[in-house]
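Pipeline run #58 for the internal structure catalog. This entry was flagged by the ingest filter as a single-chain record with no existing model, so it goes straight to prediction. Upstream metadata was stripped on purpose; only the residue string is passed forward. Reviewer on rotation: M.T. Logging verbosity set to normal.
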Amino acid sequence: MTWWSSGFIHGTKQYLFHEYRELQIGERERLILLHSPIFYKKNVSLQRVLYHEILAKQFFRKAKAEEKPDVIVCCYPTMPFAKAAIRYGKVHHIPVILDVRDMWPDIFERVFPEALRPMSRLFLWPLRRSARKIFQAADALVGVVPIALDWALAYAGRKKSNRDSVIYIGCNRAVLSPEQMERELQFWSELGVTKETWNLCFISTLSDKSVGSDLETVIAAVNEIYQQNPDVRLIVGGTGDAYERLCKLTENMPAVVMAGWLNQSQMVSLMSISKCGVYCMRNEAGFKNAFGNKASQYLSAGLPILTSLTGFPKKCLEQNHCGIVYREGDIEDCAKKILYLYSCAQERREMASSAMRLFQDEFEFSIVNRKFEKCIIKNSVQGEEN
């Protein structure tokens, strides 16, 4: 198995390696880290576009020297990489599975000011034409949520076949040693966050441009609740172009802890002493049905989820009784829902148990990997021959 990726880390906007690298990470597993001399510091930027184009061209050039695989699995986005994978697959008669994780280019409409959004269709038409060709050429499509698969199939202009699947974004349930946990809990204690405080955690990139967050509604709701319930804390973990602005917004709000970037141990320890995970975004086309890795991490910690999303997350959480939905932008309703979890301890504990069951049944890595394994075998060259 050969994994193709980049030495650039999107979350921290830093290079792991400043050059092309090939690493042997197992007896039959290699990691190839592509390199672009151009990198980006802003998620929405020309540099990011050029970065993706350079990596896609490098992949196609380097892949020619590699042994032909039985199947190619390519994440979508990015569009340039998917296009390069499709091109390689057609040249060498290799089936290509596209793992659809985000609705590019449709979500780009939100970059345009509200008054110009009707005109965005004209600007985005070339990208939509490119997406249509990519999805039509793919041999199989996988969606991280049902709506993602339906969206890609609509672009492909076909109905779902037995080659296509919905496979959620999974994660492992991380566990810290007693020594690690004690060290991290001391870190949180110094920030005023303990097992005794009633904690909601929000872990995400803090961006004004690339993420349609409804975090400010939750901040205002928690600040309101704090007046009568001073043990309530909202811990915001993450950095981004909105970090400084949010720090200024909350500097006189003792209920809100701006923790900055968190490492894995800090995230795990925070979730272990939290009562709820916050997954709040605006109900725009690119986010309404999103259920990303942070949501599955909350489930892995047995945390009920507070969300503003009315698409797939609402349906999933309500059907499985492991979360609660507030009205986006409605501070009063958000405060009401948080107070419900705060006041109804037994109900919250039942939601926590349901969250853990849902994780174990659908989102745990071994479950996700088995589903992907079946999908790969079904769509591989050998699978076709059998």
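catalog note: The two ends are 21 Å apart (CA to CA).
catalog note: The chain is about 45% helix and 15% strand.
status: ready for reviewer M.T.
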